[in-house]
Amino acid sequence: MSGDAWSELMGSLPSGTQLIDVGLRLFVALVVGGLVGLQRELTHKPAGLRTHMLLSLGTALVLVSAEQAGMSKSDLSRVLQGLVTGLGFLGGGAILKLTAEHEIHGLTTAAGLWVTAAAGAAAGLGRLGLAIVGVTLGLLVLAAFVSLERKLGHNASRDAANGPPPRNQERSDKSR
Asked: What is the value of pTM for the model shown?
């Protein structure tokens, strides 16, 4: 490696303080992703610990990289918009519609992935407290509302599959 290339490489490394800041941001992203992932893992969901950790870390890494590259706030905003769009596709891939049962599965997994990525984005942007509070609230929703969701979800599924069609549907069918 030539002297100029070595100097350029060494000049691009963060200082000790910057390294601690970046390391802390990425570590918090891993932790918040891991917390959501652990909850999903313990409830035997398809996207578990590693998926959520990698998603949160990747989101934070993209934003930290963009910020460290000196991007303006408007450029960071566009990076964030691209991440949110991409996450929509990832979440869409986690959703499965079972036609025979008239049920859709994976919406909570997709929402969990989205919250995890949002927490990773907050951590990547240095908003560590926001990342921790957001994931804490997300975990509260995932853990505390399971029994209510089962009660409501069971009835909603049964009603959708076995119930009569909506009134508007009946009228439009008769008019044909």
From this structure: 0.74
